Amino acid sequence: MEKHYRVLDKVRERMLRMPNVVGIGVGHKRVGMTRTDKPAIIIFVEKKVPAANLRRSQKVPQKIDGLDTDVVEIGRVRLLDRVMRIRPALPGSSIGHYKISAGTFGALVKDSKTGEKLILSNNHILANASNGSDGRARAGDAILQPGPHDGGKPSDKIAELVRFIPLIRTPQQSDCPVAAGVAGIGNRFIRLLRPAYEMRFYKYTRDTNIVDCAVARPLNDGLVGEELLELGPVAGVGEAREGMWVQKSGRTTGVTSGLVTAMGVTLKVNLSDDESAWFSDQVVADVMCQPGDSGSLVIDQENKAVGLLFAGSDTHCIFNRIQNVLNLLEIEF
Q1: Where are any strands of DSSP class E within 46-171?
Q2: What range(s) does the Nal1 N-terminal domain occupy (predicted)?
């Protein structure tokens, strides 16, 4: 396509002076939504106008210096700020349960039974890291875009929590009746000396989580879009493999990529300064991520979903295998 780039340099300024033309480049001609193998000079216009409504001087020629052209309607081009209010909201942007800070809108999926559209992200993003019985979240809770940390207000509600897979913490408060009875007796004595203190029993567990995931129902389908910011549409479901190149589109670090370095991983993850949880069957990759990227969909080179990012360190990110997420939440792409 060397000749195409030479012609591009030659005609760039002239073409950009044409009304409605907002960009020009080199690519492959498309027929409908299908990319062909034919190279072309791509002319981007804000809106396509019927040829009958244009003067001859305003029409993009079908060929330039013998090379095919392709006119693409791109709309109005603007900066995409991932932490701003975006309508329709897109995967890769800021989102969150009304009680949390902010995370990432992972993907738009479908309920396997009803076919309704749902927003996919982590439990700790859409359900406030709930174990299902702690009152942190319940079905119907407001989901904001952007998330509260990024300025999201009640008026920015775009969805309601539908369901989530509970998170098992280590340790967690005991629900044993005997322990509760002992604590009750102890607290009666403690209050005589230290009214501001109370006794609680916790149980330590090595039970593990295999996912950190939840889904929310958009208030209406027009509030959300399907394409991952800067990465395009999801092209189905794949399987993570050691050594595979993967990438994600996240609220904080945007698009980053790297290689899968370990599979079948069991590790301890800090949920906060005071809480932790064990996760098994996880995937580790040397993809850069930071707080706020949680919930990002991880895709392969063909844009197939392979995981859901939920944790990371200074050097690696950790993600759930996507098939576990789909099976447990009963969703599909």
Answers
A1: 63-64, 67-73, 94-97, 103-104, 107-111, 117-121, 142-144, 157-164
A2: 13-68
303 DSSP assignment: S
In angstroms, rounded to a whole number, what is the distance separating the alpha carbons of residues 73 and 49? 10
> CATH: 3.40.50.300, 1.20.1260.10, 3.30.930.10, 2.40.10.10. Which one for 245-332?
2.40.10.10
- Domain ranges (residues) in the chain: 2-73, 172-203, 245-332
Virtual torsion, Cα 297, 302, 306, 309, nearest 10 deg = -30
**Buried b / exposed e across 182-212, counting CB within 10 Å, b at 16+?**
ebeeeeeeeeeeeeeeeeeeeeeeeebbbbb
**CA 54 vs CA 43, 48, 60: distances in Å:** 16, 11, 10
Residue 126's SS3 state is helix
Cβ 232 vs Cβ 130: under 8 Å:
no
What pTM did the predictor assign? 0.73
Question: CA-CA distance, 296 to 322, in Å (whole number)?
Answer: 11
**What kind of fold does domain 2-73 have according to CATH?**
GMP Synthetase; Chain A, domain 3 (3.30.300)
Determine the average pLDDT of the residues in 61-82: 83
Is residue 44 classed as helix, strand or coil in its secondary structure?
strand
Over the stretch 261-311, which tens digit does the pLDDT of each residue have?
A: 889 988 889 888 888 899 999 999 999 999 999 999 999 999 999 999 999
Residue showing tokens 């800021």: 94
Pinpoint the alpha helices (H) of the chain.
2-16, 123-126, 177-193, 322-329
CA separation for the pair 185, 320 (Å, rounded): 43
Print the SS3 string covering 213-248: CEEEEECCHHHECCCECCCECCCCECCCCCCCEEEE
Task: Tell me the C-alpha distance between 222 and 95, whole Å.
Answer: 16
Q: What is the rounded distance in angstroms from the CA atom of residue 57 to the CA atom of residue 314?
A: 56
